[in-house]
Input
Amino acid sequence: MVAALTAAAALAPAGVAHAAADPAPPPAKRAMWLWSRAAPAAVVAWAEQHGVKEIFAAVPWAPTTADASRLRDLRARTKAAGIRLAALGGDPAWAVNPKDAVAWRQRVSAMKLFDGVHLDVEPYLLPNWVQDQQRIAASYLTMLDAVRRAGPEPLEADVPFWLATVKVGAQNLAEAVIQRVDAITVMSYRDSGAAVLDVGTDLLARARKSRLPVRLAAETQPSADCAYCTFAGRTPSALRQQLAAIDTGAKPYPTYQGIAVHDYDSWSRIS
Output
């Protein structure tokens, strides 16, 4: 995800470092991606310690028996801890193959383990995105419509902060996506709280206007391609300070739902 945002870095300022302040405790609303097959007991214990209230847990295209058992264990532990569990999935190709996205979502719903569906489909990673942007963007919206209809759980989508720069007919892509989902997580990956807010403000404002729940996201994975897109290498106290700065800056936006951190494995190595 960081590589795609690097290409769009010129569309928004990198921001400035936030002034030093005393670290604040984590607020009530944190979320995180869980792409790995980490042990559910360790994941949930760590989540409880760090104020995580929702986990986006990756569900493979074709879960094995071991995958299903692990996800059931994770569901039991998150439920006991009062943590929401969302099924995480996506592939750029789903943007032009909506049937694949729908088939995955139907399998997810049939598992009856999840409070929501968290879709990470990034069509701009397709090799022909630049040459065929309008067709791909329109197909991506068709996919969102189909996935939303394919099951009862609310649908949340990961979106880049520059989404509004893409035109789809008379709309921009941000407006069109907001109309089709129940919430968005903005991939506002930068290396300071002020910079995350700089790039996230556009979608915070659009979500407020549409009364749509929105999260901002922070990256903790190292990135050789975009050092200013990640908090990797920070100390735990420095990271907490920057995340607290994001929460403070986003307070004027009533539909702001907190910070989603990418991802458990890299975040837990910092903390």
Notes: The CA atoms of residues 191 and 237 lie 14 Å apart. Residues 193-210 form the longest helix (18 residues). The beta strands are 30-34, 52-58, 84-89, 116-119, 155-160, 167-168, 171-172, 183-187, 214-219, 256-262. The two ends are 22 Å apart (CA to CA).
